[in-house]
Amino acid sequence: MNQYHLWRIGLFGSMNHVVKTCTCGMLVMACLLINYSKATAQEHLDANLVHNALKQAANTEVAFIADVHLHDIYAAPATLAFGHGSQDVTSFDANTSGMSSQKSGSANQFPKDPETHAPLLMRSMQSQLMSTRLFNENYFAFRAALDDIADRGIKLVALPGDFSDDGQPANVKALARILDEYHTRYGMRFFAITGNHDPVRPFTRPGGKPDFLTAKGNEAAIYSPDHIRCINNRAWHCMDDIREWGYREIMQTLKNHGFSANTQDLLYETPFDSIEYEKRGWQWCDEASCIFMPDASYLVEPIKDVWLLAIDANVYIPKGQYADGNFKGSGNAGYNALLTYKPALLQWITTIVKRAKANNKRLIAFSHFPMADFYDNTQSQLESLFGKSSNQLKRMPLPTTTEALDQTGLKLHMAGHMHLYDVAPPENPTGLVNIQVPSLAAYQPGYSVVTLLPDQHAKVETIIQREVENFDRLFPIYYKEWQYRQRGGQTLWNKDILTSPHYLDFTEHHLKEVVRQRYVGNEWPKALSTYIKNHTIGDVINQSPCPDIAKDLSVEITSQPALVLAYDYYKLRNAGAFADISGREKWYITGFNEDRLTGCSLPIANDLQRLLIGFLSLLHNAALAIDRTEVTVKGV
């Protein structure tokens, strides 16, 4: 008895093994010929099915909006003004050092919308200019991006974490309302995954900030009633909607936007064989006890043959014994910690990749955290110049981490977290490509679009959000804040930001002030910081042991403040080819190259010269590593 094997595609693309029998004798040759013909025909059929599956998914577009950090400037104060809040608003009276209930009329103490006169829950401009992200304008920028995506006819939108500013009820509920609105109006579907700001910790806890803005223009502390500052009468206002939600509340509020199955989905699953919140997580145990750690990861097939893999890469490492319920934030943990604390998640990802390949699915992974180097191999330079803990280097995936992620078979991963645009190509042509999606809340603001091509390739294009309606709506309020600070002799920010003609320019002003006040002002070595703030580009070059590098420069460049060099570095690092530095990148590439910097005629005489040479070399590498604005990824 001879056997032949026929493979055929099953209902979901799986290969079902069918065995049939031929009888020996005179019909053997005929049987073999028939079997060969059937097998050959089946091979053609399989190839056609694969081709058709790829063709069906081809031209599908998925938009990725990372790090929205939505702060709803309207919701909470408006609710409080009309007495609809769950609790009274409590105001701190500086004269009596006591708390007093002010349910009626309390909204008058908040800034007012210049057009509608609605009370606003705003963070101060000073707080924005010390942060890597904007707060208040995100409300307008997010809607502008969604409008642009709707105009392009894109129906699938993924949010790779930090979709809210700190997981506060006011902001998460506002996000849900906006997503519901755009789903209803345009048929858009949204798929969110958690970031280190949502949630800040795995379980709900007290929250608030000390730098909200009052109607007078000063900063004031607003916290949730269960926060120690409210309990001890040291808050200006206390309100429920400012606490920091945990997984349960966030996932429940956004259940229609990725965190639960939808009737439109062709497939929805989690690593835990359940979509119930109580079963979506890991059991972590120490010697004394065990805890349940939630995990929001999921796989969804929103349209035929397109798989979106949402990875919850948050790792909240316990502080002390697990039973104490105290956790570190996940901001610096990322995939380095995931390999230790969530190894089963990596196994699940590997299984998903194999299934996608077997079933001819187009797989795109996204999460909040980077899977690869996001500083273009300049980590050692940054450590040498600024220190190992500088520049958020703790967030850098180790080479072994990237290798382990590459071994899962993933080809394309869309990440956020760093508020910059970057492409980390693989070491081998068919390996993992990590794309850092820019934030709408930082320079340059934008989002990315993945287009699936019919040849198992994917095109990734990044769109810059230059125009945002109402981005300048709050400028009169900010000017009032600036005046208040001036009268009080406080540190002043550069009010030129209030002359920005469009949102892109506004984010550039924001970055410059962050560089001036925070990076150069607080985080650089003092000798380098002092010199850069008080000298020109020409002075920097003349002070370095390589004065010859300035011989081709015009006076127009050498006479500019040396801070321009710092601005240019952070622009290039944040935005790559999108950065506008007036063509100076060409000079940084040719003038500061390795040969010219190492071939200086003069020896390095002091620590300042060493720092200057180190920074010029870093600037050269940033200009050299400019990422393309559009990339093609193979095997997706």
- End-to-end Cα distance: 43 Å
Low-confidence stretches: 1-39, 79-105
**How much strand?**
15-25%
> How many H/I helices?
20
Please count the beta strands (DSSP E, at least 2 residues each): 22
Shape: globular
Explain what you see.
This protein is α/β, with parallel strands linked by helices and 636 residues long. Helices cover 35% and strands 18% of the residues. A seven-stranded mixed sheet has the order 11-14-15-16-17-19-18. It has a six-stranded mixed sheet with strand order 7-6-3-20-21-22, covered by helices on one side. Helix 13 packs across helix 14 and helix 17 (563-575) runs parallel beside helix 20. The longest helix has 30 residues, at 28-57. The chain is globular and about 65 Å long. Residues 1-39 and 79-105 have low confidence and may be disordered.
Short overview:
The protein is α/β, with parallel strands linked by helices.
Detail the topology: elements first, then pairings.
Elements (H helix, E strand, L loop, with lengths): L1 E8 L5 E8 L5 H30 L3 E4 L10 H7 L8 E4 L4 E4 L23 H4 L9 H14 L4 E5 L8 H18 L2 E5 L14 E6 L5 E5 L4 H4 L5 E2 L8 H7 L13 E3 L11 E5 L4 E5 L3 E6 L2 E6 L22 H8 L1 H16 L3 E6 L11 H8 L12 H8 L5 E4 L6 E3 L8 E4 L9 E7 L4 E8 L10 H13 L15 H21 L2 H9 L2 H7 L11 H4 L4 H13 L8 H8 L2 H5 L8 H18 L5 E5 L2
Parallel strand pairs: 3-6, 6-7, 9-10, 15-16, 16-17, 17-19
Antiparallel strand pairs: 1-2, 3-20, 4-5, 4-10, 8-9, 11-14, 12-13, 14-15, 18-19, 20-21, 21-22
Descriptors:
single chain; 636 residues; alpha/beta; 7-stranded mixed sheet; 6-stranded mixed sheet; 20 helices; 35% helix; disordered N terminus
